[in-house]
Design goal:
By secondary structure, this protein is α/β, with parallel strands linked by helices. It is built from 14 helices and eight strands. The chain binds manganese (II) ion (MN).
Length: 361
Amino acid sequence: MSNQRRDFLRNAAASAVVAGSGILSGRTLAAAPASEALVTRSAPQRVIALEEHFILPEFVDYLAETKQNIRPELFDKVVPVLSDFGTGRLKVMDKNGVDFAVLSLSGPGVQIEPDTARAVRLARYANDRLATEIAKQPTRYGGFAHLAMQDPKAAADELERCVKQLKFQGGMINGETLGVYLDDRRYDVFWQRVEQLGVAIYLHPGNPPDRPHMYQDHPDMWGPTWSWAVETCSHAMRLIFSGTFDRFPGAKIILGHMGETLPIQLWRLDSRLKISNAKYQIKREPSWYVRNNIAITTSGVCSDSALRCALEAMGRDNVMFSIDYPFESSETAVKWLREADVSDADRQAVAWRNAARILKL
Ligand code: MN
């Protein structure tokens, strides 16, 4: 038996023991066909992940909005894991070979807070707390700013403080804020600052302000299964179709979950916009903005075919690895990254090179 084959079997056995060990992992690793054991792939030189969440005691109540999306007994298990910045989190990273994690508050956080002053105050508090944790592990953790989008100017100022003083990598926004989407002109002040700072904004899913009739009697479709992709991809469409990226060409957003279905839609978006009742005239075809103003992560989608589509549609420079810890299994995600059927140049780009460039790490 070759060494490669022996290693494969040993790894496969180890995987079987801990398969599905992600807190909310509903899947187990499929056994690889025997022939794959002989395929040599270069390991990622580094692994950077950037949709990796935490929670603080003051923000657990806001999680109730997300809690409705999944089975309650699973959700309760996740809070202690989210709350740990130390040994538990680092152990999972070390065991799976994750070198660096950009941490973000598990949503929706203060974005559902009706009191704007309180939202602004708590967002600042969350960012200071995160900075304290990053300072303890500066070679392992980075951060995305939590932002009170109820006050666009305050959000812009807080983003600037987080980037310049706390050395964060950008910001994360959990969908709409009290019914307002980011293409609203009141956010021009925010996008202008994003452009000036040269950082990316991770547009993370959140629930919409209303519950469309289409989801009636289907709690199974609500949340990460389906409605989050519709909501978040539509949010990105609003930014494109409203000309936000014409006004702020240097603004960049990041979409998780392999682009929330966006990579497969580009041809049709370009084709059908031409016959639509467009309200705004945008300068270029939608796919151009997707490739120039949007990057995506692989969080929660460990699929070779989806990755190849994303790389081809978005361009190799625009796809980054992520896990969505602790809602997804780190082991499943990293094992897939190592073995995915893409070129080794693509694998290095996805594993760390693009994140290092886009997040200026
Ligand atoms: Mn997430």
